[in-house]
Design a protein that fits this description.
heterotrimer, A alpha/beta (277), B mainly alpha (264), C mainly alpha (301), A: alpha/beta, Rossmann fold, six-stranded mixed beta sheet, three-stranded antiparallel beta sheet, C: 301 residues, MetI-like fold, two-stranded antiparallel ribbon, globular, transmembrane helix (chain B), transport (chain B), cell membrane (chain B)
Chain lengths: 277, 264, 301
């Protein structure tokens, strides 16, 4: 398999235990089997402590698995990290206050020695994509929380990754901003064709964004169920900006108001309840 | 947006300015009155007017002695600042160095460093400015090191994760995250050290060595019972100290674009 | 509220042990460095363009560490009938200065806390005084030490002639006063508005709010302030001794030994060592206060 057609993420029999402070061990993840298809949007949902963030961090090579196989685009997580095959965003935007918004977006390219002119051009393109072109020269602290998170997403896209890892990126935002950001993210995912592994604790968010919603339960963290998501595939972009001025939000709002959406939400909620028993 | 912010602040400033000014003027007047009317002897407290007269009379001497003391303070400040920041950078890189440096700096913070003045005088001779500058440098190292080390330790977990995910090298991590993040703290260290350098330069003169600075003039004037003149040099010391403080404050404000709220 | 200069208190006994060992190693290294400089650098130092950049290393300038330690056991006055060792003289001088420093710290501390309470009570007073108190921390107040020296023997308080040691204590108190007043005020005003409003909603008066909320909340601010104040009091006492010519203290000993022994500086080094130990002991006294008030340190900010 060449890296281009390899699964963006492939987890086989993944186990992760942490040494606890009392001398014991915490079994964070147990027997995780998960495979993402190229361009697929998968959400991880579950109560706190179910290991969903740990799972994402293992994929990002921020934590080491205790056992099992982890492949990111057919490579080891470490190799994928060193080759910048994935982009990542956290709950906190984590922008560097001493850099302008554009310079923050450029950071991944700067770290990897891309020439200045090229960095500038790419940052401008990305800020255009997240609708912040006018704020390129601002300081992060001059932006609202939602805008900062958009900058963080733009930054995660800088190296044109085929995989986005997102750890509750909208967790700190208010509901209205959050819904707008979800539509933005769907449009970006469609435009870039990137696969997304998305950690959240919001059921509607998981349903509206995902192709698949992976339901997890705690102690030890394992996958208890997989629910089909209601991602409005293609609608957000192909119909989106071009045709009669329809906004990307519209397609997503249609989904949010459909009866089918509530069916899926109920399905996830019941899966969560079953998993925690 | 700016006007909306500045309006209330300016009104606040006015409310903040007059009480200390009134207090200062009243205190000075009371002091003058007390001394002239009740006849407090000059050795206890000379009248402000007498001190002012002496400031004018000894102005050339004040300028030249203040230049000597200020020069010593400045040289020591620069040397100590560079040493303090450098040591903190080393300590942030190596656990051994930090474990060795921390107890020494903690001890130095408690110990009267100015008492080292006679040591440096015997080691380097009493005919140069070097001993006093060294005392100032050692005094300055302490707050600069402590503040810089604190700043370098202030890396948030999300920045750490981010730079790891970006596969940044340790050098890049220092350059992009650690050092820029520490700049406000380094400048706070400088702001704290600037007035301390003047104090150290003056006190070091009390321990012997060359007798050409403000501190030695205070001592010699007091020894000659010329109390008003001694106070005139005290006033000059205070002005010099304030000048260093304000310069440090200005440097801090200029360098840190967004003022940090963290007070040491 | 620990200063970053301190070693983090280790969780395990092993890391605490390691911290102590490294502290000892640091001081041993310092001694080794001293001896190394003495060994390597020529006796008359190194001058570049007439400016000596490396120190003189002859025994008259940099005695061996063991010579200094040996001096502690030498008799202070050769051939005197009553033999008192240099070490005993330094010790008694350090104790004398320690008493004056701690007395000054206590006096300055009490006055500082009282003024902080007054300023907390009256906003006008705070606005009038605080700029001066903050500024006073940045100006060389210690410069007035030689002037207070003039008080000795010339004035009387309540019929008691003014003692020279009292000048020393006044200066120590004066220097300790300012950092403590600032720290205490910051601590008293540190409780969050919600907490103050809660007390108001419970109809608590100023006193209850003070005792139950403001005082406990000020402890994490008071301790570092007291640490600064202790260091300032020690420096103040030593400098005051020097400029007032007060006998009996370690500051005076530094000058006496420095002037008396041009050929053998070891005695001066013992006195400076005494002053350093004095500073550490004063800091230790604040450490005891810290321990006593430990349970208030975890107050949520």
């Amino acid at each position: 398999m060449t890296p281009d057609t390899a699964a963006p993420v492939e987890l086989v029999g993944l186990d992760k235990t942490f040494a606890a402070s009392g001398g014991g061990a915490v079994h964070a993840l147990s027997g995780i089997e998960l495979r993402l298809a190229p361009g697929e949007f998968v959400s991880l949902i579950g109560p706190s402590g179910c290991g969903k963030s740990t799972l994402l961090r293992v994929v990002a090579d921020l934590e080491q698995p205790s056992s099992g196989t982890v492949l990111v685009g057919g490579k080891s997580p470490r190799q994928a990290r060193l080759e910048q095959d994935y982009g990542i965003a956290f709950q906190q935007a984590g922008l560097l206050e001493w850099r302008t918004v554009a310079e923050n977006v450029e950071l991944p390219l700067h770290v990897h020695g891309v020439a200045k002119a090229e960095r500038r051009a790419r940052a401008a393109e990305l800020l255009e994509m997240v609708g912040l072109a006018d704020f390129a020269a601002h300081r992060p602290s001059q932006l609202s929380g939602g805008m900062q998170q958009r900058v963080a997403i733009a930054r995660s896209l800088a190296t044109r990754p085929k995989l986005l890892l997102m750890d509750e990126p909208f967790g700190a935002l208010d509901e209205m901003t959050r819904e707008r950001m979800q539509a933005e993210l769907l449009r970006i995912a469609d435009e870039t064709g990137a696969a997304v592994l998305f950690v959240t604790h919001s059921i509607p968010e998981a349903v509206v964004l995902s192709d698949r919603v992976v339901v997890m339960s705690p102690r030890p963290g394992r996958i208890t169920d997989v629910v089909k998501g209601r991602r409005p595939r293609g609608a957000a972009t192909t119909g989106g900006r071009g045709v009669d001025g329809a906004r990307p939000e519209d397609a997503v709002d249609d989904v949010r108001e459909s009866a089918d959406f509530f069916t899926a939400v109920t399905e996830v909620r019941e899966a969560l309840r079953k998993g925690s028993q | 947006m700016t006007t909306a912010v500045e309006g209330p602040r300016r009104r606040l400033r006015a409310g903040r300015v007059w009480p200390p000014v009134v207090f200062g003027v009243v205190a000075l007047l009371l002091w003058e009155l007390l001394v002239t009317v009740s006849g407090i002897p000059a050795f206890l407290l000379p009248a402000p007017s007498a001190i002012a007269t002496q400031v004018v009379a000894s102005f050339p001497t004040i300028l030249s002695t203040a230049a000597v003391t200020g020069g010593n303070a400045l040289v020591g400040l620069v040397v100590g600042f560079v040493l303090g920041v450098g040591l903190a950078l080393l300590a942030a890189r190596s656990r051994i160095i930090s474990e060795l440096a921390n107890p020494l700096v903690s001890a130095a913070a408690a110990v009267p460093i100015v008492a080292l003045a006679p040591v440096f005088t015997t080691m380097f001779g009493s005919t140069t400015e070097l001993p006093r500058r060294l005392v100032v440098a050692v005094v300055v190292v302490v707050p600069v090191f402590v503040s810089t080390a604190r700043g370098l330790a202030q890396v948030t977990p999300v920045h750490h994760d981010l730079m790891t995910a970006l596969a940044a090298t340790p050098t890049q991590f220092s350059r992009f995250v650690r050092l820029p993040g520490a700049v406000p703290y380094i400048m706070t260290g400088l702001r704290l050290a600037a007035p301390a350098s003047v104090i150290a330069a003056i006190v070091a003169e009390y321990f012997g060595g060359l007798q050409n600075g403000l501190g030695s003039r205070i001592t010699s004037a007091a020894a000659n019972t010329a109390y008003a003149r001694a106070w005139a040099f005290v006033v000059a010391s205070i002005v010099l100290g304030l000048a260093f403080y304000l310069a440090g404050l200005l440097a801090e404000r200029l360098v840190t674009r967004t003022p940090t709220r963290r007070e040491p | 509220m620990r200063t970053a200069g301190q070693v983090e208190p280790g969780r395990s006994p092993w890391s605490r042990w390691r911290g102590a060992a490294m502290a000892v190693a640091a001081f041993v290294l310092l001694v080794v460095l001293w001896e190394l400089v003495k060994l390597v650098v020529p006796a008359d130092g190194v001058s570049v363009g007439g400016v000596r950049v490396l120190p003189r290393t002859s025994d008259a300038a940099m005695p061996h560490v063991w010579t200094v330690l040996g001096t502690l056991f030498d008799p202070e006055v050769a051939g005197a009938a009553q033999q008192r060792s240099v070490g005993a003289a330094v010790l008694s001088g350090a104790l004398f200065t320690l008493r004056l420093s701690l007395g000054g710290l206590l006096l300055g501390g009490v006055l500082g806390v009282l003024l902080a309470l007054l300023m907390q009570r009256s906003g006008l007073l705070e606005r009038a005084l605080l700029p001066y108190i903050v500024a006073s921390q940045t100006v060389p107040l210690i410069a007035i030490a030689p002037l207070v020296a003039g008080w000795g023997g010339k004035i009387a308080v309540f019929g008691q002639p003014w003692q020279p040691w009292a000048s020393v204590m006044v200066i120590a108190a004066y220097l300790a006063f300012f950092p403590i007043a600032v720290g205490m005020l910051r601590g008293l005003t540190s409780p969050r508005a919600e907490d103050v409003e809660l007390f108001r909603a419970l109809a608590c008066g100023w006193w209850t709010t003070l005792i139950r909320l403001r005082l406990p909340a000020s402890v994490p601010f008071l301790i570092p302030a007291a640490r600064l104040g202790a260091a300032a009091a020690v420096i103040g006492a030593i400098v005051a001794e020097i400029s007032t010519g007060t006998r009996g203290g370690v500051g005076r000993l530094i000058i006496e030994y420095a002037q008396a022994a041009t050929g053998d500086p070891s005695r001066m080094y013992t006195a400076i060592l005494g002053a350093a130990v004095l500073g550490l002991v004063a800091a230790g006294a604040v450490g005891l206060l810290d321990l006593a008030l430990r349970r208030y340190q975890a107050v949520a900010r």
